[in-house]
Design goal:
Blueprint: H1 5-14, E1 36-40, E2 43-46, E3 51-53, H2 57-60, H3 69-81, H4 90-102, E4 108-112, H5 115-130, E5 134-138, H6 155-158, E6 179-182, H7 187-197, E7 201-206, E8 209-210, E9 216-217, H8 220-232, E10 236-240, H9 251-256, E11 262-266, E12 276-280, H10 282-285, H11 306-318, H12 321-345
């Protein structure tokens, strides 16, 4: 508290207008969070002048750190020409082509504003395409905050014993009739549900790495097995690569050679600005084509906005194979170092990652 008197003062003032003094629960820390004045490279500087190494990077968003020169210049240039327009821009399909060229499963893509939106629309696309409503989710995976995925992402952290489907506060329990919850990395459990209920199930959505539940990595055999099972039972497979896209230039699916039907992207692809994108097989994505009869509605005031497209294009171009390798080496160095420290201290812990 001696280091952060201004943050404490701001927190007390902010609570008059914001519940808990902020607008993202995950950024609250007891007794109060520090308030940021500036981000610079891999550092954060708070309002009291303290300097922190930023290992969060806004929940994995800032691949290139704060204030990356090329990304900042791209944003500044676009701001002068307009931030958002009620019409398409060339940058939308230019950025779309970059992502389609990189991610194996994506033949066509649509832009949104968050990871929550893209998992919601990917699931909706699967339901329309298959004519079924059911959804398989894995215990402990986090796919955003819309109703059909606000299930069991805390349970893997706090419960023991038999798996029990649970909804978050404010979510109607009625949605459970269309949901099937299975353990992560358990092919046998997944097949048991598919075999019994496949005629009702449109899709299965899974994170290749469980971010919220502690960096638990899906095995290659598990993801390959899900691919085989979903094809066998007529169920679409959705990879939520909002976090894991960064593991290669085209996500875990490119790294492992496992291609889902649909993919959800977000976070790092936006160059630090709000973004989401969902894409997949052309025949599925064409359901959103407004030039066709009975198309599926998808819109949004800021979807594909000019400033985010500019930032995203710049960030993605800078994230080439060399950048991926550098990040991988840094991650390995961090994990090895943490493991050594914990072993020397006799601390039992799990250190995940890829």
């Amino acid at each position: 508290m001696k280091m952060t008197p201004k943050s404490r003062q701001l927190f007390e003032e902010a609570q008059k207008w914001l519940p808990g003094g902020g607008t993202r629960n995950i950024t609250y820390y007891y007794p109060y969070p520090f308030y940021v004045a500036k981000g610079e490279g891999c550092y954060l500087i708070d309002v009291d002048g303290n300097r922190y190494i930023d290992v969060q990077n806004n929940m994995t968003v800032l691949l290139h750190g704060h204030g990356h020169l090329q990304v900042t210049e791209a944003i500044q240039k676009q701001v002068a020409e307009g931030t958002a327009h009620n019409a398409p821009t060339p940058a939308q399909f230019e950025f779309a082509k970059l992502l389609c060229d990189r991610v194996p499963s994506i033949e066509e893509i649509r832009f949104c504003n968050s990871g929550t939106e893209v998992t919601m629309f990917a699931i909706r696309a699967a339901r329309v395409f298959t004519g079924k409503d059911g959804l398989i989710v894995t215990d402990g995976c986090y796919h955003g905050s819309h109703d059909y995925v606000s299930v069991n992402f805390d349970s893997a952290l706090i419960t023991e014993g038999p798996l029990k489907p649970m909804v978050e506060k404010g979510i109607p329990k009625a949605i459970l009739k269309d949901l099937y919850v299975v353990p992560f990395n358990d092919l046998q459990a997944a097949e048991k549900v598919m075999k019994k209920h496949h005629k009702k199930i449109a899709a299965m959505i899974v994170e290749p790495l469980m971010g919220y539940a502690g960096d638990v990595l899906a095995t290659k055999d598990y993801l390959s097995g899900l691919r085989e099972l979903t094809r066998k039972y007529g169920i679409l497979l959705i990879f939520d690569e909002v976090i894991t896209f960064r593991f290669s230039t085209g996500g875990v699916q490119k790294l492992y050679g496992v291609t889902p039907d649909l993919t959800a992207l977000g976070k790092a692809i936006g160059g630090g600005l709000p973004i989401g994108a969902f894409g997949g097989r052309r025949e599925i994505m064409e359901q959103f084509n407004p030039t066709k009869k009975d198309f599926v509605m998808h819109s949004g005031t800021f979807s594909g906005n000019a400033i985010t497209m500019a930032a995203g294009k710049s960030a993605l171009k800078a994230y080439d194979e060399a950048a991926v390798e550098r990040l991988s080496q840094l991650g390995t160095r961090l994990r090895v170092g943490l493991r050594k420290i914990m072993d020397e201290l006799g601390v039992k812990c799990f250190i995940g990652g890829l």
